[in-house]
Amino acid sequence: MATEEFSSVKSNSTEQTKIKYVTLEKPKRSVNRKANFSTQAAELMNTIIQDQSEGNIETLEPIAEKHIQEIQTKSINGRVKNVMTNTINYTKISQLPNDKQQVTGKLIDLTLVVDGDLCVIDFDINKNLSKEKIDEIRQNIIDNMLPVNVDLVKIAHGGLHANCNKNGFIQPANRCMKCTIIDNIEINIFEQMFKHKEYSEDPEQQELIQNRIVGLNSSFGETKNNKRETLKYEAVNDWTNMTHLASLRETLDKWNVDIEISYAEYIDKKQKREFCQQITDYGTIDKMNDELAQACIDGFKNLTIHNYPQAIAMKIQLLNVFSGLYGITNEKVRAEGIANIRQYNKLTANAKMNYGYAASQGERKPNPWILTKILKYHNKDYNEQSIKPLLKKNYEQKKMEKQIIVNQTLIPNKIDLQDGFTLLDMQEKAVNGEYENEEQIFMDLSRLLIYYEGETEDIYAIKGYDTICDTQVLYHKLKGTVYKQLEKINKNFKNKKSQEKSDDNKESKPLTAKHIFKKYTSKFAKKGCKFISEDPKILTVFQGYKYKKLDTIDYECLQICFDLIKETIAAGDISVNEYILKWIAWMIQNPRKKSSAAIVQQGRQGIGKKQIH
User: Fold this and answer.
1) Distance in angstroms (rounded) separating the CA atoms of residues 243 and 115
2) CA end-to-end span of the chain
3) 29: phi > 0 → left, psi -120 to 50 → alpha, else beta; which?
4) CA-CA distance, 404 to 221, in Å (whole number)?
5) pLDDT digits (tens, 9 = 90+) for 356-397
6) Which residue ranges make up each domain of the chain?
């Protein structure tokens, strides 16, 4: 566009000349060349970046593979020799030794391991078991739960350390992860730890903190029952020269344990029967019933099977398939499963080439539960429709069988009024965390409480302290009153940590002794209550005289009674008098037993006047 303006300008000649000014405006472009250039440049740049990225990936893959191979070929001793510190005087304290201090062990700081890939699976076995049972469980762990290529160290109290490689496996909560808990075995995983517990607090996670474990050939002292004991860490296999360690992920996959989710989520899934416990309390692999095994075989079709080891969630490895099939005890079902591998599934070229080798290796480490995890990731619809319901059924059946065994082995205590144990003592033990399981609470509760059927409702007899008589007595109460007393005793097992509980459990009301009583209620039942009875199913009220025992005996008071017995009842007969005194003494010493004897007074003609009981 243009605008016109006119103005007068004086020239040197005094004449005015009119000049016309024209202003031009820059018009808008019909096409935005800059925008087109930016789009084209961005596309070109993305293409270049993508080409470079693909080139970098191709370059990095052999580098990463080479790095893994370097870690695999290096011995354990070579990886930890520069990260060990001495411990002195049979303690776990790391100090520089001097003349007064003796080096008794080594500590390995996993944080300082250069490759950062070493991790330790820690098996803590219940130390309250006998030494023979601990040795049996440890051997079961080695034979059934661990692959061959793991470094093994026998630790204090008979447990086990198994060293393996992470191979890039990252734990969700960055701490010594509590993997799973069984009645007799507790499994933890130790590895390099960053400063922050959760990755959300510091996504970059650059700062490491110290994380030490006790090394091989270490000793430390422990005082138990006023007795000093030396505990040792001993090699089970060739610890120092061990190379090509097993993968942590591969080991956990075979246990059907997924620690890539939080422990609370794992417990929640376990409570929903999505996971089935496969490791028994004694470190063996639980057997799979025929119904579930057949269902696994039926669902193992139209799958691609590889030879190269991969996580179960990513690909199906031929070795895992054979490990699962050889774990099936029913020979007919197992044979059908082996035949179906080639008939209904696709094997890669390498899998076909290594078929025989994988079969022989899988037979050495059988575990049928691997099949359920394979179907979980690679045949999801079938898993939801068929496997999960059977796992739930199997879980409920095992739970019922375990409860039946517990009920059969639990023999309740008898209420003893001479025993000073009361509900207050139970409450103190619960607060101090002295109970390890429900069975211990039940055994203590059976020392205090029973119930029997009354005319209108059940009557509860509970032992308590009588301040007047200064002794234990039985109080007969109604259910509501007793339940209020039991609700004051919370379950607080000493091996149960707060972080192990699910979110649902944290928000719900705490479990109390009332729940234990209701769970084992049949064990507390009696037919009735009598003053004295020989029937063990009937509560005997009389348990001896409740009067206080005298420190000194006043025989002058007793002599009056003795004279009366001798002169009146025994009629001066010495042998009869001794018999009566011994009879009375026997009744005092045996208050619950019947003597089957009675005193009968006779007249001169031998006619009975009265029978004295």
Assistant:
1) 14
2) 138
3) beta
4) 41
5) 999 998 888 888 988 998 998 899 999 999 998 998 888 888
6) 74-279, 423-540, 564-612
